[in-house]
# Entry
Amino acid sequence: MFNAHHLTPEKISTIVKQYPTPFHLYDAEGIKQNVEQLLKAFSWNQGFKEYFAVKATPNPHIMRLLQNQGIGADCSSLAELSLAEKLNMQGEDIMFTSNNTSKEEFQMAKRLGAIINLDDISHISYLEDCAGLPELLSFRYNPGSEKAGNVIIGKPEEAKFGLTKVQLLQAYKLAKEKGIKRFGLHTMVASNELNLDYFAETATLLFELALQVKAELDIELEFINLGGGLGIPYKPDDKALDIEELSTSIKRLFETLLKANGLGSVKLFLESGRYITGPYGCLVTQVRHIKQTYKSFVGLDATMADLMRPGMYGAYHHVTVLGKESDEVTEIYDLTGSLCENNDKFAIDRMLPKIDVGDIVVLHDTGAHGYSMGFNYNGKLRSAELLLRSDDSIQLIRRAETLEDYFTTLDFGGI
Ligand SMILES: *Cc1c(COP(=O)(O)O)cnc(C)c1O
# Structure
């Protein structure tokens, strides 16, 4: 959030003089320092790698920053694989974790040499038929009732992702029979989780499973991908995850479960999106109208097209009004966009200082799953993306959409 990073109110007020609102603004230096901390925390594990979940912020400039720090790409679609390819990423710098996967997606993942992480046992033969089997294969585990779910991702038994434990063991056996030599294991059961115990529990499940795979099938896993889902403090009173503490608790489990049983060379992977970029972005908007009916509505120039999380699952994004950060909080507002949908709101019954038309309203922590979730319903156009670089310069890393972009798939001939 503000002040912890470089996206200060002073900085934003100079940027709004040069660039029209709305726009997402990202903090390159903040992202960089955060990644350094993460890599340092896990440096005890030989081969540790973070694969950035591209869907969180699919912008090549952000991906390049991360790539320069040795971060890989976690892709799940053709578009995400294409982005990785445009950055000359290939081989095991890419992890392909998809579901209900198309032939074209598997073919592209195989062509790039990405680590392919299968979501179902039936995908072994599907992959074999459409692209041929790679030398390394990974499977996504769904622990079902062995693991309680969390709010965004839901209960594992209800989730469409991954293989059951029985299927997983069969899948490794089958893959081995088909000549696969190298194996990985993956799960992703949390989203925006701030509780360290949750991750320790997941690590325990996976480490024990790795021992079972070794004992029953004589397969030594090369890596275990603990997934993403590391949370960030969206609310002012949320406590940030202590990455050192998280790493230490996983290290302890790694040593007692894996290392003590001859699996000390297993590489650990993470595929976080939100944790990497979430706090280092904000959506900068301007107040267009103030409307007073049964409630007080502040109409912004951004819509759900730019930030869906509040409308989609009631997510909290902290809000500040530029220049009024320390004003007394006296009003209760709904902050809205202009979509013809009543869930097009960024905040409901939010206590804020008195707002005037023309004020700049900043929605915090939009650096992940912000721009990228946007949609064009109602013909609403998505905003620009700006990057505040480490040298303090501003770079437009995506222009705003135009009506021409929106109409580009239509054929107006013969009407
Ligand atoms: C979305 C997703 C992630 C990233 O989730 P975050 O909450 O952003 O860390 C990682 N892996 C998979 C498979 C995902 O679908």
